[in-house]
């Protein structure tokens, strides 16, 4: 029965892809941990005896919520590629793909195994019916303190060599440690641009997508000065009273999508940029009683379990 359903999804996906293109989503899941302490990592608070009393029920509910977001992201058909930030390990990704609303859609995944002190990583889920990985590797920057690796995945859509995509899944260090953090963020960005530069030397019209949690505004010098050959779509979809993350009552757009010039040029063959936006789905939001308006419905408010989704909203890119 499941194999027959997956065949149906395959037929629908291929037909829709030929007509409509490819969708790529990014979502910071906010602490998608399993319940087991991994030696050498500071993940004790997300264990049953930890400060958050992270039970198997809470873990399962968290992953079901993530699955619900992915399923609801596109009303026409399954999203082709999903980039996730703040996921702990293979246990989490396996459960997400096989024991949530995603289980009938056949997603497979690739992920990093970083040296981040909390043990969180980035991952890429993909539909094997519409995206075919050629290669993937982690980029580990030489930072002063361990941080998340960048995941680089190269693959084709629909089997056409015209539509080879290079996707970088990013979760830059936060700004918490002042100058040290600033240097580390620059080091990670330098590692990304070194990789993209090498690709563009070989393939002049390479279709490159860099997306994830940049922990910075799209107008920041870090992004404006280092990604000059890219269009930052967050500059288009950010709004005055909306964004992907809310901090002390102010919306910010720290979840961003950058695309190379080959995806915006009108004479580009194959896939091109069509649209991008923040997915502010109603069930992802709740009333902001402190600052007014709405805010993302997160899993915890402080240490009080809230049963929500994430402190971030997803962003999505459409290529046609």
At a glance:
With 320 residues, this protein is α+β, with helices and mostly antiparallel strands. It is built from six helices and 18 strands. Helix 2 packs across helix 3 (90-98).
Can you say what the CATH homologous superfamily is? Endonuclease/exonuclease/phosphatase
How much of the sequence lies in strands comes to: 25-35%
Q: How many helices? A: 6
Order of helices and strands: HEHEHEEEEEHEHEHEEEEEEEEE
Tell me about the largest β-sheet.
Answer: 6 strands, mixed
What structural category do the secondary elements indicate? Answer: alpha+beta
Explain this structure to me?
The chain is of the alpha+beta class and 320 residues long. The protein has one domain (22-313): Endonuclease/exonuclease/phosphatase (Deoxyribonuclease I, Chain A, 4-Layer Sandwich). The chain has helices at residues 2-20, 56-72, 90-98, 178-202, 221-226, 234-237, and strands spanning 22-32, 81-87, 108-111, 121-126, 131-139, 150-157, 164-171, 207-213, 230-232, 245-247, 250-252, 255-260, 273-278, 285-287, 294-296, 300-301, 304-305, 315-319. The strands form 5 sheets. It has a 6-stranded mixed β-sheet with strand order 3-4-2-1-18-13. Strand 7, helix 4 (178-202) and strand 8 (207-213) form a beta-alpha-beta unit. The longest helix has 25 residues, at 178-202. Mean pLDDT is 92; it is low at 9-17.
Describe the protein's topology:
Blueprint: H1 2-20, E1 22-32, H2 56-72, E2 81-87, H3 90-98, E3 108-111, E4 121-126, E5 131-139, E6 150-157, E7 164-171, H4 178-202, E8 207-213, H5 221-226, E9 230-232, H6 234-237, E10 245-247, E11 250-252, E12 255-260, E13 273-278, E14 285-287, E15 294-296, E16 300-301, E17 304-305, E18 315-319
Parallel strand pairs: 1-2, 7-8
Antiparallel strand pairs: 1-18, 2-4, 3-4, 5-6, 6-7, 8-12, 9-12, 10-11, 13-18, 14-15, 16-17
């Amino acid at each position: 029965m499941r194999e027959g359903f997956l065949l149906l999804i395959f037929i629908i996906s291929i037909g829709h892809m030929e007509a409509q293109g490819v969708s790529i989503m990014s979502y910071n899941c906010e602490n998608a941990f399993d319940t087991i302490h991994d030696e050498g990592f500071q993940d004790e608070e997300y264990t049953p005896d930890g400060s958050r009393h992270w039970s198997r029920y809470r873990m399962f509910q968290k992953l079901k919520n993530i699955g619900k977001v992915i399923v609801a992201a596109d009303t026409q058909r399954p999203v082709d590629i999903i980039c996730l930030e703040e996921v702990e390990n293979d246990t989490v990704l396996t459960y997400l793909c096989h024991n949530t609303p995603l289980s009938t859609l056949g997603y497979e995944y690739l992920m990093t195994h970083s040296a981040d002190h909390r043990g969180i990583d980035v991952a890429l889920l993909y539909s094997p019916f519409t995206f075919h990985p050629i290669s993937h590797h982690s980029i580990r920057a030489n930072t002063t303190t361990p941080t998340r690796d960048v995941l680089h995945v190269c693959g084709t859509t629909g089997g056409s060599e015209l539509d080879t995509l290079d996707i970088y899944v990013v979760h830059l260090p936060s700004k918490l440690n002042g100058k040290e953090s600033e240097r580390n963020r620059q080091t990670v960005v330098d590692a990304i641009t070194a990789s993209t530069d090498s690709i563009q030397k070989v393939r002049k019209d390479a279709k490159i997508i860099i997306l994830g949690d940049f922990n910075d505004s799209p107008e920041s010098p870090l992004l404006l000065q280092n990604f000059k050959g890219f269009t930052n779509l967050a500059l288009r979809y950010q709004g005055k009273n909306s964004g992907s993350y809310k901090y002390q009552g102010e919306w910010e757009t720290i979840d961003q999508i950058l695309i190379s010039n080959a995806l915006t040029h009108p004479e580009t063959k194959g896939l091109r940029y069509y649209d991008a936006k923040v997915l502010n789905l109603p069930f992802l939001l709740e009333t902001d009683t402190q600052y007014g308006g709405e805010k993302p419905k997160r899993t915890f408010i402080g240490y009080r379990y809230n049963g929500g989704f994430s402190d971030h909203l997803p962003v999505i890119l459409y290529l046609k």
